[in-house]
Specification:
alpha+beta; Jelly Rolls; 2 domains; six-stranded antiparallel beta sheet; globular; binds 2,5-dihydroxybenzoic acid
Length: about 350
């Protein structure tokens, strides 16, 4: 019996399968090659969402329902291979959230971890753990599990950001808890910028004690990230598969910023073409700057700023930048690494 073939059928065998099904059994030999595959076989497919289309549809939603009535006015990025499952990859969720000037998305908390990646607009706020942060394009913001969070837009412009959550992962474990605060906004007890100053300036309070697994920083401003990338590029040393790729970390332990979602940012200089790469963590990319294309398996997607695309597990991926490009991305790598199942293959096609 091979892992890639199924045994033949016969009338006796079919009768047997019907009999055992009535007793709530099934025969492993008929499904073994589907459930234990030699390499990952994902229902998730490569796909790109153009920001222009997304924004047009979101603005239409803005006329249809308020942020408050919707609780969260979000268009889910539905992977075409995983329809009606609210997933962009098998383990991760992505959505685009619109908050119009003057609106609030009321305070709630849940056991799912969330990240925000700011796509369009500037000056809207998210509050987490009694602190508000102003969000600007390219900022990476986290909401750790079970922390109160509410969003508001006191700026003059509509604000759109991408939400990345571990919703499918929590569904797999049946570990979802959620509750509303019953107020639009939570009490603000800390000055804006407090956590970045306290934990994001290469220092920690002298008697700091680790609480939870998420980073105590909750806004990683793009201005700092971009400046760091620009300084690093001067060495002109490029990883063949990634260009210059960095992880957003939890400064307390050097691990990823979030317990279940691994966030990254990478710079690909003009004209750079990456060597083929695959990994078991399906990855969501959002283009911050630049234009180019990404080949995922046998499909090529042209991208420009604010477009979002997804690379399923174990698909070979090649990025090519026509202009200096910066890509934000997130995946479940941190979870897979904790479980000891993550794999990668470099120079792979
Ligand atoms: O902003 O809290 O896209 O709870 C999905 C679920 C956003 C949020 C989403 C959420 C949120």
């Amino acid at each position: 019996m091979s892992l890639t073939e199924k045994p033949q059928s016969s009338p006796e065998r079919e009768a047997y399968y019907e009999k055992i099904a009535r007793q709530d059994f099934s025969a492993l030999w008929n499904v073994l090659s589907d459930i234990i595959t030699p390499t990952p076989k994902s229902a998730c497919v490569p796909h790109l969402w153009e920001f222009d289309t997304a924004k047009r549809l979101l603005m239409e939603a803005g006329e249809l329902i308020t942020a408050k009535e919707a609780e969260r006015r979000v268009l889910i990025l539905e992977n075409p291979g995983l329809r009606s499952q609210s997933r962009i990859t098998t383990s991760l969720y992505a959505g685009l959230q619109l908050v119009l000037p003057g609106e609030v998305a009321p305070a709630h908390r849940h056991s799912q971890s969330a990240l925000r990646f700011v796509m369009d607009g500037g000056g809207a706020c998210t509050a987490v753990n009694g602190e508000r942060t102003l969000m600007h394009e390219g900022d990476f913001v986290i909401t750790p599990p079970w922390t109160w969070h509410d969003h508001g837009n006191e700026s003059e412009r509509p604000m759109i950001w991408m939400d990345g959550l571990d919703i499918p992962m929590l569904s797999l474990f049946d570990a979802s808890f959620a509750e509303g605060l019953g107020e639009d906004t939570q009490a603000i007890t800390k000055p804006t910028g407090d956590s970045l100053a306290r934990y994001g300036a290469n220092m920690l309070p002298v008697d700091f004690e680790k609480k939870g697994l998420a980073s105590p920083i909750f806004n990683y401003p793009y201005a700092r990230t971009r400046e760091a990338l620009e300084t690093m590029r001067q060495r002109d040393e490029w990883d063949p598969c990634h260009g210059l790729k960095m992880r957003y970390i939890n400064p307390v332990d050097g691990g990823f910023a979030m317990p279940t979602i691994a966030p990254f940012v990478q710079l690909l200089p003009k004209g750079f073409k990456t060597a083929g790469y695959r990994s078991t963590d399906a990855t969501v990319f959002s283009v911050i700057e630049g234009t180019g294309r990404t080949t995922i398996g046998d499909k090529t997607f042209e991208w420009k700023p604010k477009d979002i695309f997804v690379v399923p597990s174990w698909y070979p991926v090649v990025h090519e930048a026509d202009a200096d490009a910066v890509l934000f991305s997130y995946s479940d790598r941190v979870a897979q690494q904790k479980l000891g199942i993550w794999r990668e293959a470099r120079n792979s096609d």
